[in-house]
Structures are given as structure tokens and as C-alpha cells.
Amino acid sequence: MDRMTLGTAAGPTASPSGPTGQDAGLDGQSAAVALPPRSVRVEQAEAAAGRLRTAAVEAVAVTWVDNAGITRVKAVPLGGLVHAAQWGVGAAPCFDAILADDGFATGPGVGGPIGDLRLYPDLTRVVPLAAQPGWAWTPGDRYTQDGSPHPGCQRLFARRMEAAAAERGLTLKAGIEVEWVVALAGGPQDEPQYPTHGPAYGMHRLTDLSDYLREVLRALGEQGLTVLQIHPEYSPGQFEVSVAPEGPVCAADTSVLVRHTVRAVSARHGLRVSFAPVVEPDTVGNGGHLHLSLWRDGRNLGHGGSGPHGLTAEAEGFLAGVLDALPELLVLGCSSPAGYLRLVPSHWAGAYQCWGLENREAALRLVTGSTGERAAAANAEVKCFDASANPYLAVGAVLAAGLAGLDQHRSLPPEFTGDPAAAEPGTVPRLPAGPAQALAAYERSTVLREALGGPLYEAVLAVRRAEDEQYAAATPEQLVAATRWRY
Ligand code: GLU
Ligand code: MG
């Protein structure tokens, strides 16, 4: 089996490549991932530490998200923040090969006990955590010991893709919807027991859990996030919150922050949460829908053009690239094999590889908003993604596929206007029904291989293959039980 435990060696680790970040004359993408000079980092950390001290913060959690979609953390006491900003915090490179159940994949250049990386807190994002008094959070980027960008760092990948868009004069606004199931706290393998039994989308559920939901809203607001809406979802104990769109890397950071805030508030109410793709077999699952709009010179390119529903040629090319690449994008957008239990027809999960205006069964839903707000609100929603995704990989890969479509001046195929689930079988292509099919598409994708770079591309492949193999013989019930409380 392509899997091992913590102590086992797995061959050489990836050798660092790329510029040190200190070189003069870096191109846009290299500049975007270069470690800022030490003096800048120290100044920033001293200022941040002062603000955090005033807010009674005692420790800072620095997170990164692994290739299996799990948020991992190193924390430092506040007094150590300046040191962490100067030198980074040690982080073993084997975490590029860790699986959702804490086993490890093996593969060329991944895993093993040798080597060290430095996790640098990105203090432009640091914020006190409202539901974890005394704690602050900030995302981290991983560099080698000599200060070169770690080629396996998922957040640096997203930053490179954001810079690739900027090189074309484009910016992206993105937002990741967060759905979760809340249950009474219990043992690790417990079947969920729900704190509310109200109907789907029902006021009954909001009433039952009104203190809890208000505290989720308050905590998110205190952390500087603009909540758009919060509501009960379809499945038992399921809720959703959406926040205002922002740049893609920020949106990925925000999805980490939102989930851990929901988790922290839940714990304070004696509740536990699951963001897993499926919490009970044969129910509607938790999505991690990615909304995006493309902008140039302050103008939304999804509006006022001559393409379908007002898309400009650039927005159409971008979306055509995304639509075409959806099978391989699932490798980045749905980490867990359990995601394919969610990605089925008539679950509003976007199981079909088609697009359509306000079509909730299409993997790519075009959203225009109310007539008067279209210039600002028009966006597309990638519905097939779930919250087992590493959000940095998801936004970076969508950018890579979209920019390829834009560069090639691609057009969208005809819109699918009906319910694809009710269409004649075979009329509308289904997205991969399992991880093996998605992986086969990923292995054919030169766009993703080039964008991710060899080490990251291979590490993702090793992790997905190991999890695919691990659960190949599992029943849906076993797969759901194994993943339910991991995400
Ligand atoms: N929970 C559904 C999913 O699995 C999505 C429902 C909705 O459209 O918000 O993606
Ligand atoms: Mg929803």
C-alpha cells in the first residue's frame, strides 16, 4: 500500500528550486512569493505584537493547509512572534505527504523524516480570535531554510496564480461558501446527534440555536469579516454562512478562519461540527462552493459584454477554461474520496459538467444578481467543490485553468437550461464519479502540471492515490464514518 506511518523514510525530499526571493529583477510571479526582507518582517511583527498585546492576546496560531485538506498548525507565544517572523517556525516537509487520517503517502520527493522548512506567519492577515480568548490566528507560507519559496507550498502557489492574473491586468474576486453540520459533542466515531430537529431552511432551527448562531455572527464580525448571510441548510443539523468576496488568496485564508471560528463557537456551546463532504450516507452533503468574478480596471468582466448573459470575451474564455478542466480540478477542489458520495445528481452539488444561469445542478452556475446590481454582483459559482479541499489549491488551480482558457480565447459550449438530472441519460456529461477518474484527468493536464510545478503536482498525486487506495474497498458507510469528524 502506498502509505506509511510517521517514522518511515520515503526517499529524498524535494530539492529547493527557484529564486531565493532576494534577487533583483524578479518577474511578477517570483516577486509575489519572495520572502520580504528581514527588516520589513521584524518591523511588521513588532507592530503586530503591540496591537495583539493590547487585545490581550497571549499566543498566535500559524496555520497552513495540507494536500489532504486538513489545516495544520504551529503556535508561538506572543513573545516569540518577532523571532518567528525573522526566522520562521520549523515545519517538517513530510507534511506534504500527510493524509486526512494522519497516515503518510509515499512518492518521489515526498514524505520521510529528513529536512526542515520554515513556516513564516503572514502578519498582514493576523487577527485576534473572538471565540478563543487570548489567541490570535494568521496564515503561514513555507520557505526553505535559505529563504527560497518551498515549491510544495500551497499558499505560495495561490499567490503565484494571483500574480499571473495581475500580469495580465486582471484581478479576481472570490468567496468560498461554508456549509457545516452541527451535532452534540461526543466520542470520535459517534453518529451525529443533532441539537435541533427543525426542517430544512426552517426558522425553527434558527430559533432552537439562536444564541449559537448569533455568536457565530458576532465572532466573524469581530474578526473583521463581512457576513453576507447565514441560514439553516437542507440536511439535519446543517447550516451555511457566506462572506463578502475578496482577492483569491484572502478568500482562501478567510475560509480557514471561518471554519475554525465556527468550530470554536460550537465547542463553547457543547457542540461539534463537521465540514466533511458527507456526514450521513445518502444525505445532501457539505459543499465548499467557490464564487468568482474577473475584473479589469475596476470593471466586472462578467457584465456588459456581448457574450452569453453579458459576459465579456475575457470572462467567457476564463469560464470556458474552468468548465473544460472541471474533471481534473476536482482533484484540487474535492480532496476526500468521500466527496464523490456528495457529488451526485439532485443534491445541488453540481455533478454535471455544464453551465447555466442560476442552474443549481450545473457544476458552473452563472449568477447575475438583481437587475440593478449586476455590474457589481455578476459572478460564477463552481458548485462541485467541497470543504475537504485545500482552499489555496482550489483557488490557484481554478485561476490556472481559467487563465489558460482566457489566453486561448475559448468560448463556452451552449448553456444547459434545464435540470441536467432530469435530462435523457448521456445528454449532459457527468463529472467523475470517483477519485480514480478525476486523477486520470489530472495526470493528463499539462496546464495544472505547469502551474503547480513538479513537486506540488507530485505531492498532491501521491496523497490522492494513497487515499483512493485506502478507501477503494470501503462501503459508503465506512467511508463516511472514517471522514465525518476529520474535516
Ligand atoms: N449542500 C449542497 C452541496 O453539497 C449545496 C446546497 C446549496 O446550493 O447551497 O453542495
Ligand atoms: Mg448551501
Descriptive overview:
The protein has 487 residues and is α+β, with helices and mostly antiparallel strands. The protein has a domain at 28-149: Roll (Ubiquitin-like (UB roll)). It has helices at 28-33, 38-54, 81-87, 154-167, 203-208, 210-222, 248-268, 313-333, 339-342, 374-377, 391-407, 435-444, 446-452, 454-470, 476-483; strands at residues 3-4, 59-65, 71-77, 89-91, 104-105, 117-121, 127-128, 135-143, 170-176, 178-184, 227-232, 238-243, 271-274, 290-296, 299-300, 352-357, 362-367, 379-382. Strands 2, 3, 4, 6, 7 and 8 form a 6-stranded mixed β-sheet that branches. Strands 9, 14, 15, 16, 17 and 18 form a 6-stranded mixed β-sheet that branches. The chain has a 4-stranded antiparallel β-sheet with strand order 11-12-10-13. A hairpin with a 5-residue loop joins strand 11 and strand 12 (238-243). Helix 4 packs parallel to helix 11 (391-407), helix 8 (313-333) runs antiparallel to helix 11 (391-407) and helix 12 packs antiparallel against helix 14. The longest helix is centred in the middle third of the chain and has 21 residues, at 248-268. The radius of gyration is 21 Å and the shape is globular. The chain starts with a strand and ends with a helix. The model is unreliable at 7-23 (pLDDT under 50). Bound molecules: glutamic acid (GLU) and magnesium ion. Glutamic acid (GLU) binds at residues 179, 233, 284-285, 287, 342, 347-349, 360.
